[in-house]
Amino acid sequence: MLKIKKSLLHQTFAKLSQIKVLVIGDLILDEYLIGSVERISPEAPVPVVWVRNEKQTLGGSGNVVQNLSSIGVNGIVYGRIGNDKAGESLERILLSNSVAKEDLVLLKSKTLPTILKTRIIASHQQVCRVDREEIVPLTEAEEATILETLKQKIKESSAVILSDYDKGYLTPSLIQSVISLCNAEEKIVTVDPQVSHFFLYKNIHIMTPNHHEAGKALGKKLASDSEIESACREISERITPDAMMITRGEKGMSIYERKTNTFYHIPTVAKEVFDVTGAGDTVITTYTAFVASGMSIKEAALVSNVSAGIVVGKLGAATVTQPEIEDALRTLGYLDEAV
Ligand SMILES: Nc1ncnc2c1ncn2[C@@H]1O[C@H](COP(=O)(O)OP(=O)(O)OP(=O)(O)O)[C@@H](O)[C@H]1O
Ligand SMILES: [Mg+2]
């Protein structure tokens, strides 16, 4: 069984606070209006929710930033917002999540709204969700603006995460430009892909789709270990990454290292599952941060699987901390405490 040396874990923890990880992708504001229902509306046969509490959190690529902040990593963020209140909220919340003002590079669209998903919750039940979004790809002019500063920000970062929610920020040409710049600067790129863009992500470090997404991209159903293995090989032949990771929900995850042609199947460590929302964001964030701070592919994958096991035991799009990771590694027998 793979174990992680306690000294390596502590060295990696120390390194986390020194690096910056660049997150590029679709920013979303998640909003929750929480209240109770006392009566049915006289206007239509619908409940009237009396709102007592309101909450706004980071969604989409913003959830990756929140995960970075929680493990003590500073983020550099590229994304798009609208010229509206939700955009102001996103900006404010990102700035309170380990992103410095000069590292928050937001394109403010004059025509598009900030992507906002509002959940109305009464007595712990979601009554409905209200979405505000216009999915429009970046314009050439917007891409040109992004590329003016991107090279410098890539230089300042240790790794780049592409968090693709298919909302228009990651266009094929931007994807290509980012990967070329990162390859030139020798910075690793990790990708949480959308099926429609799957094979555009060539020459990256790793891609982390779930088994449904990988299956859709290949037009196959992926269930058994051997089906997952041949999918990893097939995708790797087409995009030539250093490694390929497929997350498999309650089955944990599988990783393929292309150079050595080896597979690791890591079972989930979650004991209780409350909410799997955002587990994929936790996987890509912890994996990227730990590999960029000195761990091997295998070790970083193990840490990311353990981290996902922790977050699925919490409610909402949750995050993990360094002490939680160390405790879980110890409890699960993955920590080698010998000096
Ligand atoms: N039902 C579950 N039981 C146990 N562990 C789980 C479960 N769902 C997810 N996990 C853990 O979380 C990791 C990522 O989950 P999953 O494969 O569902 O990713 P995802 O579908 O991309 O998630 P997201 O909804 O955030 O996009 C898994 O590798 C596993 O470790
Ligand atoms: Mg996912």
UniProtKB/TrEMBL annotation:
Single GO term (MF) = phosphotransferase activity, alcohol group as acceptor
Recorded E.C. number(s)?
2.7.-.-
Q: What class of enzyme is it?
A: transferase
Domain Carbohydrate kinase PfkB per the UniProt entry, residue ranges: 20-319
The beginning of the lineage is: Bacteria, Pseudomonadati, Spirochaetota, Spirochaetia, Leptospirales
Its name, as the record gives it, is Putative carbohydrate kinase, RfaE domain I type
Top-rank lineage group of the source organism: Bacteria
Which Pfam families does the record associate with it? PfkB (PF00294)
Among its keywords, does the record have Transferase?
yes
**Alphabetical UniProt keywords:** Kinase, Transferase
Q: Respond yes or no to whether keyword Transferase is given for this record.
A: yes
**Which terms in the GO cellular component ontology are assigned?**
cytosol
